[in-house]
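Handout, page 2. Input:
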Amino acid sequence: MSDSIIMWESLAWAVGALVVAVLGSLIAHRVVFAVLSRITKGTTNRVDASLVRHSKKPAKLLLPLIGIILVMPVLQLSPEVRAAVNHIIGLLIIASMAWLSIAMTSVFSDVIAAKYDVTVKDNLTARRVQTQVHVLRRILVVVIVTISVSVMLMTFPEIRSIGAGLFASAGIAGLIIGMAARPTLSNLIAGIQMALTEPIRLDDVVIVEGEWGWIEEIGTTYVVVRIWDLRRLVVPLSYFIEKPFQNWTRRSADLLGTVFIYTDYTIPVDEIRAELHSSLQSSSRWDGKVWGLQVTNATEQTLELRALMSARDSSTAWDLRCEIREKLIKFLQEKYPGSLPKVRAEFRQNARSGETAA
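Output:
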């Protein structure tokens, strides 16, 4: 039997063994995760369900690699081919372990989300914790990817030798890279600062660049603000560290709302105050904590009345303000139409000319 036939037989045997190992691993992966999914489907343990869900895809790469490693000793390969295959397997294992590590950060986020629910009424602590975990997870993912790519590159002898040669000039290279990546680095540093100091949290009500909205997403380098009319304002993460902005829910979600009414001097303020209290008590939007009516200004023509009221969150406060404004205006129109703002003019008759002058 010629050497070429033996070589082809060995190659066919090796390829067949690798195909069987990969297919067997994929079948085992499908069976195992089908059983695990069925087990965790009806369970109340969210950790197990999240672990199965997030580890399914990384395991689909890792299990075939393990199968290939198990059959490698019985394959008749030349030293050069074996070394190349081992190198490729090593790179894929590093990538799969990085993928699995990132999946575990998602599991941790799910656990925190289950423990700290932001849908409850008093969700300040939940939003604070979830924001910290969200930002730190993004940073951790960047660190895992960076370390994994670095380790994969260091497996190439040529790159290791180049790295040793460039070590002496690392200071200059680092300075150049730092200047080029300054916006990205500043946003990453801002993300760390944000996780520690918490100027904003998920679902916070903010006013940014004159726009009123909610913090919808906090990314690695940007923040998405959902405007009240469903537009999205994308702002660099460093903006919330370097520039002033309004945060209406920094300490608590409840807010004080105001309604200004302008009336004539003849208005009975006590009756307006009683009507305000009655309107608030009949409204489901009022949280029952704060209310009041005061004369905050008096001009030569009108009185300025400020109605103060509290609500559980910003959206409810806005709706409550509109509701109370409509009710107070209707009350004035029906009960005291003569007390609506008016312009007065006095006419005097000129005794000499008999003409009437304003």
